[in-house]
Amino acid sequence: MNAQINNTTGVILAGGRNSRFGSDKALAKINGIRTIDRIILVMKNVFTEIIIITNNQKLYKEFKLKLFSDIVIGEGPLMGIYTALHYSSKDIFVTGCDMPFLNESVIRKIVRGLEGFDAAVPKCSEKMHYLQAAYSLRCFNLIKKNLDMGILGLKDLVEDLNCNIIEGFKFEADLFSPFFNMNTTDDFALVKDYLNQSANRAKNPGK
Asked: Which domain range does residue 154 map to?
């Protein structure tokens, strides 16, 4: 078993409005397991400290983790990252609360890639994944500047950072890679079907 990382805080961003999903994505259950449970299980294998950024703390009190609300509500995931850096004394790894296939080895690869850089952002299938990435404390002042100027895009931020773009990822099912996030109920239905099929194959390997 790999040792836990203690110089980086694991951050779960759960401050979204879930407007396209219609309910809290993090609490959506598949086979009796909520998405947030899957994420926390993986994060606990990697980090000694985990925090959740949420504007509805009542939903997450049961997990006995540190909870923080966005310093300013309604300014998107960049504010979530800023809030995490504000309350953390360490560099951070962030993930959304809607990523059911979060992968320990992928997280460790991203965190290792942060050394010597302001940020480490994975690129897979020609897409950058800013919400499963690592950000150093050095980002704090630039993020504050962008927020003050109303520049809320993560792409805009990363373009101004010394960023390590992490590539070379290969997965058995690209659609359901660790970077897949559930934005809609259709996404949730796809994930549910995929996990059910995977569970059936595990139970009946010869079929």
From this structure: 8-203
